[in-house]
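Q: Structure for this?
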Amino acid sequence: MRNFLIILFCLPFLASAQDTVEGMVMESNPDNKHLGLPGANVYWEGSPIGTMTKEDGTFSIPYSKEYNKLIISFVGFKSDTLTIDEPKMVHHWLKPSNELDEVVVEQKKEAVQKTFFSAQNVVTVNSAELLKAACCNLSESFETNPAIDVNFNDALTGTKQIEMLGLTSPYLLITQENIPMVRGASQAFGLTFTPGTWVESIQITKGAGSVVNGYESISGQINTELQKPLTDAPIFVNGYANLNGRLELNTHLNTKLSDKWSTGLFVHGNRRDSEVDNNDDNFLDMPLSNQVNIMNRWQYQNPETGWVSFFNVRYLNDEKQVGETGFNPETDKFTTNAWGSEIDTERFDGSVKLGYVFPDLPFQSFGFQASYSHHAQDSYFGFNTYDIDHESVYSNLLFNSIIGNTKHKFKTGISFAYDGYDELVNGTIFTRSDRSAGAFFEYSYTNLEKLSLTAGARFDTHNRLGNFFTPRLHLRYTPWENGSFRGSFGLGRRAANIFAENQRMFASSRTIQLNGNGGNIYGFDAEKAVNYGVSFIQKFKLFDRPGDFSVDFYRTDFENQIVVDWENPREVVFSNLDGDSYANSLQVELNHRVLPNVEVRTAYKFYDVKTEYQTGLLQKPLQAKHRFFTNIGYNTEPKENGAQWRFDYTFNLLGEQRLPSTAANPAEYRLGDFADGYSLMNTQITKVFSNKFEVYVGGENLTNFRQYNAVLGADDPFGDYFDTTIVYAPIFGRMLYMGFRFKI
Amino acid sequence: MMIKRIAILAVMFVSVVGMAQDKNKKMTFEVDGKCEMCKMRIEKAALGVTGVKYATWDIPTHQLSLVMDEGKTNSMEIKSAIAAVGHDTKELKATQEAYDAVHPCCKYREDNTDDSANHKKDNR
């Protein structure tokens, strides 16, 4: 017994006490000087025993008979294995792994990157692409990208509506740095509240998105990454002016406060105070407007501890005035002197993001996001008034790790959201508060080569939508080199904010009818849809220059939808879906760098979107079934200091669009059943003088194509036939602009 | 006496635990290769070994960084798996057969420059 004890007692000390290998690891040099390498790894091959060299390069490691291969390694040096059969002193010089100091290999980064390996169908638009058009704001950032369609949706404000897969933006989840952004009260104008220069990149996901960001996305997701104080230029100034009297100024100031903290101040202002009525219908073609938008960002990064953080505050004030020329709000508001409208928005956002990557486990991390926003819009349209106050809180806690190894990853977490709405619609008060809590789990698998899969699910409990389950599935299979098939499937649901999303109806004489069924969102049920689709992409080289061909087909099927029926020109009717509603979309795209500096992109899009209205199953109004898109970009070779010319040209061809029925109107206020197809061209020329300074000029709608009857009943805006909602083409004609960008 | 024995046993037990195998052992060693395709082949081979949780091969430095569970595997096992797909490490050279099987553009023994620019597996 005693002997046994002694043996046991000694065992642990055998390995750690007497026998050690000591020595010094040094950087090899011609004279074999003793230049100690601190932090080099020294370990026994195949054992759990290892150590690191100290400041002076010395080390000490226990010796045991079981192991005789001592490995010495250090990043940037060639690893060496020494055979050691007895405890002794070791002096070892490591050789640099490559004698070259530094090799910089630059590869031209494409401005639009299509995913190839991710399971989801994502297109990334980076800042180079965003510079191709003047992109005053986010709603105009998609003009050179075929995945998104830009429509003109109201004759008054000229606000561009975006569509994906044939569905309007409420069915898209629009996020800013993965925090839901353009929703609720900001649905109509929210995209115009992010200045273009603030945008660093945009990720467009077609089809059902990830469950991590919630249950609301139905047709897709658009995520915007903003400029980061750490990487944005210390000083950036952009000025813009167009011939319609719109002036913009963007200033970014970024500074590094310490090796961990950076901060940035982003200031945007725009105004238009000249009245433009090119089509002589007595109505402004573009609103008089004034916007101040200020954001302050703080960024914290500590690579040693693995913490990263962002903190943002933003204040926005936006004022628009539209209506008849010569309308003076002070004397004409709520009178029949002249028809006019004002839309004033004040918004405050605050958000915080915290991220932690486990220093020893590069595959494991925590993330926390929280945001608060308060959005207040006061507006009137002739005699109609619409005020909305929307307070929103969102938070998401996320944990990323692996199962076994990095081929199997998972994300899981919980989220909480609150939305408080307070609306005043022509004197009627609508208040609503939405609260939801949810938990999600997403598993992703990749075999690193041919197959990847993402399967996610979330369960939410919502005070109005009830308790529900949202599954999402994405698959990617690469059968041969550079060709990928993808499939996706997902459910989504949302509470439609019928007034905020359809504000243009207030600028008409239509009566608003709510044919609810007693559901708990304005008397309606939640919208619910399933989206599924397949896509194929093939990259190729032709004449030794890259290109890609892709085709995708998606379908969205609504189980319930709040149908907005414009088919009777006297009214706009809201009701729950009774029958079918679906959207089929097909896109074929071919891109190629036809010459060393010339990129050509072409796309054909087909939409078959039908909904059961009161008058039957009809094609969605104001949407072209066929669209064709071409974009050509040409850059001269940049000189040493970055100087170059950049040319960009975009051509859009839209097929005929069905118009909502105006048959019930008197002849002079009738439109046809269809609007003819038309084409639009935009171009921009940029002269880059150096990496610091560039100037651009451009034109939109070069062929000056216009819709002349955009305002029905413009001659009698207080009469029964006044309607500004039927817009299928630009109202203002050719628009020329110029601007500069300066950065230090 | 009994108490003493227990105490001694406890002390010994603790020191044995101190020598226990690390579930998340970080390790770095050199693997020969040159391009994006090599990177994929090496990482795939390493991750194919039970107990390897994370593997990233850096093209310019040729260093493979690993996180592994020492209870399930050791570096020699990983190096064997890498040699089996045709990539050399300091201790283990791939057989001629395995080396011949790699893609022609990956022939790092003839020329082990960083060739990632010409052979992008655009992993986006």
